[in-house]
Amino acid sequence: MGGRCSLCIRDGRIAATCVGGAEIDFSASPFKVLALPAPADVHVHLREPGFEYKETIATGTAAAAAGGFTDVCAMPNLRPVPDSPETLRPQLDAMASSARIRVHPYGAITKGEAGRELADMAALAPYVVAFSDDGKGLQDEGIAREAFAAVRETGKPLAAHCEVEPLVPRGGCVHDGAFARAHRLTGIPSSSEWKMVERDLGIVRDTGVRYHVCHVSTKESVALVRAAKRDGLPVTCETAPHYLILSDGDLADEGRFKMNPPVRGAADRDALLEGIADGTIDCIATDHAPHSLDEKGRGLAGSAFGIVGLETSLPLCATILVKRGILSWAQLADRMSTRPRGIFGLPSAGLSAGSGANAVFVAVGVDDIVDPGKFQSKGRATPFAGWAVAARIALTLIDGRPAFDNLASIGVRSPFTKQ
Ligand code: DOR
């Protein structure tokens, strides 16, 4: 240990020598600093156009950069819903004027995400990363079959929000388990998720569409995906940090613990940990879903579904999954960067000499506390407020340029800011 450890960036690329480049001397920091391929989040809600009071492309992508991300895939539950090139246009315009990192929009599967008529997916395909009706499951099996076949034609993945609505009782707000019973809250059963995963896998078998399950939360879904992969079906899936870290035993009656699907029981969490470790679960995505303070301030029964995650995902996963030995750093980079990029065809990331650097530098061994007051996101609702994290994002590079520069906080002089 000891000695000098510096990195040189010239023209956006890592250079072997530093003549005329920007030099970052990491040995000045008291912390160990790791360089990882920049994570990509395949499931975020940026809320623009239509719900700018919750988040904008400017604030959401600033949050993403602060969380180490260079690429995010933005869900289509917007106003207007991007179900044609015309209705996608306002989002593309906002991205062009205010995105801090790369945003890859999803196109809707059905018109207005109403689940009745297919969107103009062939016309949308050149502009979108994949198709999803996130927030809503495709209830009608006939429409789902048509949709899967149409998405198959585009060659893009179909990202499925799996939720059988008739199985969710009115007012369902938390997992149908011990916490719901103890607090007399209406529960959302696991079957509302896995029964749609099961139905969809049958349609995947028939259509061959590239099928990606969004925010997997139940042990049954993990088992179904594991078996489908074993059968060679073109299936991938994601989960989110809160499903890997929490169970319903950790809930309190506050809006910041409410999301859809809900955090499930301890056996589900353990199955998800097994799935992320053995690779059944391909990606860790955040499902970053900001809402206003008012919308999240009405307890579990009355608040909107959704929590923010972009600024806490990597520090939490580094602290809980890596420190506890569930994933190695290499596996974490695989699930947060390499695999999501591969599945969704996003720009590749890394720091190898001579390549355009899409990388995040993480200081480890820090004693930080998650403080929603410091978020760049407009959303503040996180179940992890006040949690201790041992990793801090020090620098996010996108194509060799700083998207987020926090080097001063770890005692390193930044070559990007004027002193
Ligand atoms: O909690 C959630 N919030 N789950 C979803 O599926 C949608 C999301 C949102 O858009 O707020």
Structural class: alpha/beta
The CATH homology group name: Metal-dependent hydrolases
Distance between the termini: 29 Å
Mean pLDDT: 96
Protein topology:
Elements: E1 6-10, E2 13-14, E3 22-25, E4 32-37, E5 40-44, H1 57-66, E6 71-74, H2 85-98, E7 102-107, H3 121-124, E8 130-132, H4 141-154, E9 158-160, E10 174-175, H5 178-182, E11 187-188, H6 191-207, E12 211-213, H7 219-230, E13 235-239, H8 241-245, H9 266-278, E14 283-284, H10 293-296, H11 299-302, H12 313-322, H13 329-344, E15 359-369, E16 388-398, E17 401-405
Parallel strand pairs: 5-6, 6-7, 7-8, 8-9, 9-12, 10-11, 12-13, 13-14
Antiparallel strand pairs: 1-2, 1-3, 4-15, 15-16, 16-17
Annotation keywords:
four-stranded antiparallel beta sheet, alpha/beta, 13 helices, 17 strands, eight-stranded parallel beta sheet, globular, 419 residues, binds (4S)-2,6-dioxohexahydropyrimidine-4-carboxylic acid, TIM Barrel
Task: Describe the structure in your own words.
The protein is α/β, with parallel strands linked by helices. The chain has one domain (38-351): Alpha-Beta Barrel (TIM Barrel). Helices cover 31% and strands 19% of the residues. It is built from 13 helices and 17 strands. It has helices at 57-66, 85-98, 121-124, 141-154, 178-182, 191-207, 219-230, 241-245, 266-278, 293-296, 299-302, 313-322, 329-344; strands spanning 6-10, 13-14, 22-25, 32-37, 40-44, 71-74, 102-107, 130-132, 158-160, 174-175, 187-188, 211-213, 235-239, 283-284, 359-369, 388-398, 401-405. The strands form 4 sheets. An 8-stranded parallel beta sheet has the order 5-6-7-8-9-12-13-14. Strands 4-15-16-17 form a 4-stranded antiparallel beta sheet, with helices on one face. A 3-stranded antiparallel beta sheet has the order 2-1-3, with no helix packed on it. Helix 1 links the parallel strand 5 and strand 6 (71-74). The chain is globular, with a radius of gyration of 21 Å. The model has no long low-confidence stretch (mean pLDDT 96). The structure holds (4S)-2,6-dioxohexahydropyrimidine-4-carboxylic acid (DOR). (4S)-2,6-dioxohexahydropyrimidine-4-carboxylic acid is lined by residues 45, 77, 134-135, 161, 259-260, 289, 305-306.
